[in-house]
Amino acid sequence: MKLNDHACLTFGEPEELLDLTAAYVRDGLSGGLRVVWLCEEPQGALTELDRRGVAVRSATAAGSMDVVASQDGLLSGPSFTVAHAMEWLHRQRELTSRGGYAGLRVALDMGWALRPISGIEQLPAFEEEIATALSDTGVSVLCQYDRDRFDPVTLASVASFHTRSVTAATYHSDPLLRICRQYAPPGVRLAGQLDRTAEDSLALALSEAIRVDGDITINMSELSFIDLSCTRMILDAARSMAADRSVALRCGPPIASRFVLLGAGGVPGVRLVTGHGG
Fold first, then answer.
1. What is the pTM of this model?
2. N or C: which end of the chain has fewer CB within 10 A?
3. How far apart are CA 157 and CA 8, in angstroms?
4. What is the pLDDT of residues 100-130, one digit of tens each?
5. Rounded to whole angstroms, how far apart are CA atoms 223 and 13?
6. Closest CA to 46 of 61, 57, 38
């Protein structure tokens, strides 16, 4: 994303939201920008960003990043008004300018709009106001919508006010399995049940991660099953990498046991992560 972008991120699961937001935050901080994330659970968000390698603790201490609860930002008690929300956004811009930052990145988790609050019918008007008021101001805004919880009519009503759409690059998606690109830390994310019927998609995802990224993470924390063929494919991909690169296999104990069975512990550069680290 660039300065002045007003983008719409649609996601299907929390890991996807956290991954894409982590990349947005990471790139903003590295570019000397101030970053603000308005979300439902600030402490949990900070923990998840930290786990993905974003230096949020030092950034918040320095004032270059804030993670704010919805009720402390866009909402006024149990109600929503465009005027109050825009006042909050303009205040963030003023704080950024006073701090001497190169620009501002704002991430808005729109989950608050699913609550039974008054004024929610103003949501499209709010999106239109963002597009009008914050263009050419050095501010980029990333609005985050859960595509499974928001109805298609609502999503369609706000789509035209955004300059671009953001989603994770997806290699396979059906009711049983999702394979997509992971951005922070870089690699591949697998969710559901993985067997040889998805080998081609898995091979493409692995090859692109190896070609594009340095050290990679295969995030299987939401994977409930993997067959031996796909387990072997992942390990073979890890073996093919240069000696100075590493692969973190993040998964639960049942999935980890498959990799142990095939000798993952003896593959140079491969690290099994069965907790929340890595």
1. 0.81
2. C
3. 12
4. 999 999 999 999 999 999 999 999 999 999 9
5. 13
6. 57
